Amino acid sequence: MLALLLSACSFGAAQPTPTVEIPTPVPASATPLPGIVLLVSPDGDPQTGEAAAAASGYAAANGLQFEQRNTLTAGELPPMLQVLVLLSADPGVQELAAAAPQVRIVTVGFAPAEPLPNVTSLSVSAAAGSQDAAFIAGYMAAMTANDWRTGILYSPASADLVEPYRSGASYFCGACVPLGPPNSRYPIAAQAASPGDWQAAVDQLMIEFVRVVYLTPEMEASGAAQYLAGYGLVLIGSTAPSADVAQQWLASVSAQAGESLQSQLQQALAGQAPSAASGVVVEHTHPSLFSQARLENVQLVIQDLLSGLLVP
To answer: Of 57, 93, 138, 242, which has the maximum CB count within 10 A?
Structure first.
């Protein structure tokens, strides 16, 4: 009876409203944006600011992330990486390029030993000047002349090219003192009073048995080139040789102005072929006077000179 009474009393009680639990949706993790990693050499590359400005600007314009690091290995490559900029010195571009063949890699100040399909290399040279060209001319002259008997014919307008020319020759041959007389210290610097008054200066070169002469730009059209070529001397200048001296013309060495590093980087990051960098250009080489192997050696010296590894 008691049990029946208790159950009857519960019939009128309010029943709790059932609730349905709706699971809270878990937000999907945002897909990381592709990133650009700018690798800076540990000792602080002087080109870092310019390269960072170009890379960060490209990232912002294309809705990408920008990162900057001091070191990077193949195992640390971000999974969504699109473009990688590497500053000198070489952190192992061969391994990085192999680990991320889909990534566009831009190297600044160095190049891989072998060309790689996803790697573009840029120079870091400042605007090359005529002094850099004179240095290379001196190096080539000393490499060519018997007993390093080289000289430079200049006027007061180009007096600032004498020391760079001498430095270039000395970089190849040191003291540059020949084995036999005259035992002068080469190169011989002969100054003409003016581009039209060169005979006395040329006579000085002839007396010293100079065999290779660098004509500074203002002296090339003075008539001295034809006179020297007539006596069998080998010549270096900065422009294309005229037909009457072509057989004695070793090479033309000139400074080349080019795009800034930032402009080159902007082009490379966009997948465009970068414009020519500033540098020293060697043209019109005479194959019988200067071999391809020597020319390749000169190109290596030019790279060291413009990158700052070689300081005259």
So the answer is: 138
